[in-house]
Amino acid sequence: MFDTIVIATDGSDSVRRAVDVAVDVAARFDATVHAVYVVDSGEVESTPDEVREDLRDALDDHGESALEQVTDAAAERDPDLDVTVEVREGRPAAEISGYARDVDADVVAMGTRGRHGENRFLIGSVAERVVRTCPIPVLTVRQLTDEDPRRTTI
Protein backbone atom coordinates (compact mmCIF):
# COMPACT_ATOMS: atom_id res chain seq x y z
CA MET A 1 0.00 0.00 0.00
CA PHE A 2 2.83 2.43 0.86
CA ASP A 3 6.13 2.18 -0.98
CA THR A 4 7.45 5.71 -0.40
CA ILE A 5 6.75 7.92 2.59
CA VAL A 6 7.91 11.53 2.84
CA ILE A 7 8.37 12.86 6.36
CA ALA A 8 8.43 16.65 6.50
CA THR A 9 10.33 17.77 9.58
CA ASP A 10 11.38 21.00 11.22
CA GLY A 11 12.81 19.29 14.30
CA SER A 12 10.12 20.67 16.60
CA ASP A 13 8.34 18.77 19.36
CA SER A 14 5.16 18.76 17.29
CA VAL A 15 6.91 16.73 14.59
CA ARG A 16 8.43 14.05 16.83
CA ARG A 17 5.19 12.11 17.17
CA ALA A 18 4.62 12.35 13.41
CA VAL A 19 8.11 10.96 12.81
CA ASP A 20 7.39 8.01 15.10
CA VAL A 21 4.04 7.29 13.42
CA ALA A 22 5.45 7.60 9.89
CA VAL A 23 8.47 5.42 10.68
CA ASP A 24 6.16 2.80 12.16
CA VAL A 25 3.99 2.83 9.01
CA ALA A 26 7.13 2.58 6.83
CA ALA A 27 8.42 -0.38 8.83
CA ARG A 28 5.06 -2.18 8.62
CA PHE A 29 4.88 -1.74 4.83
CA ASP A 30 8.64 -2.07 4.17
CA ALA A 31 8.47 1.38 2.59
CA THR A 32 11.27 3.76 1.74
CA VAL A 33 11.42 6.89 3.91
CA HIS A 34 12.36 10.29 2.54
CA ALA A 35 12.88 12.95 5.21
CA VAL A 36 12.82 16.54 4.05
CA TYR A 37 13.68 19.76 5.88
CA VAL A 38 13.04 23.13 4.27
CA VAL A 39 15.02 26.27 5.00
CA ASP A 40 12.39 29.00 4.71
CA SER A 41 13.81 31.39 2.12
CA GLY A 42 11.40 34.13 3.21
CA GLU A 43 12.79 34.00 6.72
CA VAL A 44 16.37 34.13 5.43
CA GLU A 45 15.74 36.95 2.95
CA SER A 46 13.97 39.11 5.53
CA THR A 47 17.06 39.03 7.75
CA PRO A 48 19.54 41.95 7.69
CA ASP A 49 22.45 41.38 5.32
CA GLU A 50 24.99 41.37 8.18
CA VAL A 51 23.53 38.24 9.75
CA ARG A 52 21.92 36.51 6.77
CA GLU A 53 24.73 34.03 6.17
CA ASP A 54 24.93 33.19 9.88
CA LEU A 55 21.18 32.56 9.94
CA ARG A 56 21.37 30.35 6.85
CA ASP A 57 24.20 28.35 8.46
CA ALA A 58 22.22 28.01 11.70
CA LEU A 59 19.12 26.86 9.82
CA ASP A 60 21.19 24.35 7.83
CA ASP A 61 22.64 22.97 11.07
CA HIS A 62 19.16 22.79 12.60
CA GLY A 63 17.93 20.97 9.50
CA GLU A 64 20.70 18.40 9.73
CA SER A 65 19.79 17.82 13.36
CA ALA A 66 16.08 17.48 12.49
CA LEU A 67 16.88 14.96 9.76
CA GLU A 68 19.13 13.06 12.14
CA GLN A 69 16.14 12.66 14.47
CA VAL A 70 14.31 10.91 11.63
CA THR A 71 17.22 8.61 10.77
CA ASP A 72 17.70 7.78 14.47
CA ALA A 73 14.00 6.98 14.91
CA ALA A 74 14.07 4.78 11.82
CA ALA A 75 17.20 2.93 12.93
CA GLU A 76 15.68 2.34 16.34
CA ARG A 77 12.41 1.01 14.89
CA ASP A 78 13.93 -1.05 12.06
CA PRO A 79 17.66 -1.01 11.25
CA ASP A 80 16.91 -2.19 7.70
CA LEU A 81 14.61 0.75 6.93
CA ASP A 82 15.89 2.74 3.94
CA VAL A 83 16.01 6.49 4.73
CA THR A 84 16.98 9.28 2.36
CA VAL A 85 17.38 12.82 3.67
CA GLU A 86 17.09 16.12 1.81
CA VAL A 87 17.51 19.78 2.74
CA ARG A 88 15.76 22.24 0.46
CA GLU A 89 15.38 25.99 0.47
CA GLY A 90 12.25 27.86 -0.51
CA ARG A 91 8.67 28.19 0.63
CA PRO A 92 8.13 25.21 2.96
CA ALA A 93 4.70 24.07 1.76
CA ALA A 94 5.65 24.31 -1.91
CA GLU A 95 8.99 22.57 -1.36
CA ILE A 96 7.42 19.72 0.62
CA SER A 97 4.77 19.17 -2.05
CA GLY A 98 7.35 19.40 -4.82
CA TYR A 99 9.68 16.94 -3.13
CA ALA A 100 6.82 14.47 -2.60
CA ARG A 101 6.02 14.66 -6.31
CA ASP A 102 9.72 14.34 -7.24
CA VAL A 103 10.10 11.05 -5.32
CA ASP A 104 6.64 9.79 -6.34
CA ALA A 105 5.57 9.51 -2.70
CA ASP A 106 2.48 7.61 -1.64
CA VAL A 107 1.94 9.77 1.43
CA VAL A 108 3.42 12.81 3.16
CA ALA A 109 3.58 12.69 6.97
CA MET A 110 3.92 15.80 9.06
CA GLY A 111 3.18 17.06 12.53
CA THR A 112 0.76 19.70 13.61
CA ARG A 113 0.25 21.43 16.90
CA GLY A 114 -3.47 20.80 16.57
CA ARG A 115 -4.47 24.44 16.96
CA HIS A 116 -8.06 25.21 16.23
CA GLY A 117 -10.52 28.06 16.32
CA GLU A 118 -9.25 31.60 15.86
CA ASN A 119 -5.59 30.68 16.50
CA ARG A 120 -5.60 28.53 13.39
CA PHE A 121 -6.30 31.60 11.24
CA LEU A 122 -3.92 33.94 13.08
CA ILE A 123 -0.87 31.70 13.10
CA GLY A 124 -1.05 29.96 9.75
CA SER A 125 0.31 26.51 9.22
CA VAL A 126 2.65 24.82 6.80
CA ALA A 127 0.76 21.59 7.44
CA GLU A 128 -2.53 23.23 6.54
CA ARG A 129 -1.10 24.59 3.28
CA VAL A 130 0.37 21.20 2.38
CA VAL A 131 -2.96 19.50 3.10
CA ARG A 132 -4.77 22.02 0.88
CA THR A 133 -2.31 22.05 -2.03
CA CYS A 134 -0.42 18.74 -2.19
CA PRO A 135 -1.74 16.29 -4.80
CA ILE A 136 -0.47 13.41 -2.64
CA PRO A 137 -2.33 12.26 0.50
CA VAL A 138 -1.08 13.95 3.68
CA LEU A 139 -1.03 12.29 7.09
CA THR A 140 -1.04 14.90 9.83
CA VAL A 141 -0.23 13.79 13.34
CA ARG A 142 -1.28 16.03 16.19
CA GLN A 143 1.13 16.71 19.01
CA LEU A 144 -0.29 15.42 22.28
CA THR A 145 -0.69 17.82 25.18
CA ASP A 146 0.84 17.11 28.57
CA GLU A 147 -2.63 16.33 29.89
CA ASP A 148 -3.46 13.76 27.20
CA PRO A 149 -3.52 10.26 28.70
CA ARG A 150 -1.96 8.83 25.51
CA ARG A 151 1.19 10.90 26.03
CA THR A 152 4.11 8.98 27.40
CA THR A 153 7.27 10.43 28.84
CA ILE A 154 10.66 8.96 28.27
By DSSP (H or I, 4+ residues per run), the number of helices equals: 6
Total number of β-strand segments?
5
Structural class computed from helices and strand pairing? alpha/beta
Q: Percent of residues in beta strands?
A: 15-25%
Whole-Å distance between the termini?
A: 32 Å
Spatial order of the strands forming the largest sheet: 3-2-1-4-5
What is the overall shape?
A: globular
Nearest-angstrom radius of gyration? 16 Å
Low-confidence stretches: none
Largest sheet: 5 strands, parallel
- Whole-number mean pLDDT: 88
Order of helical and strand elements: EHEHHEHEHHE
Fraction of residues in H or I helices: 40-55%
How would you describe this protein?
The protein has 154 residues and is α/β, with parallel strands linked by helices. The chain contains 6 helices and 5 strands, in the order βαβααβαβααβ. A 5-stranded parallel β-sheet has the order 3-2-1-4-5, sandwiched between helices. Helix 4 crosses helix 6. It starts with a strand and ends in a 12-residue tail after the last strand. The mean pLDDT is 88.
State the main characteristics.
154 residues; alpha/beta; 5-stranded parallel beta sheet; 21% strand
In short, what is this structure?
The chain is α/β, with parallel strands linked by helices.
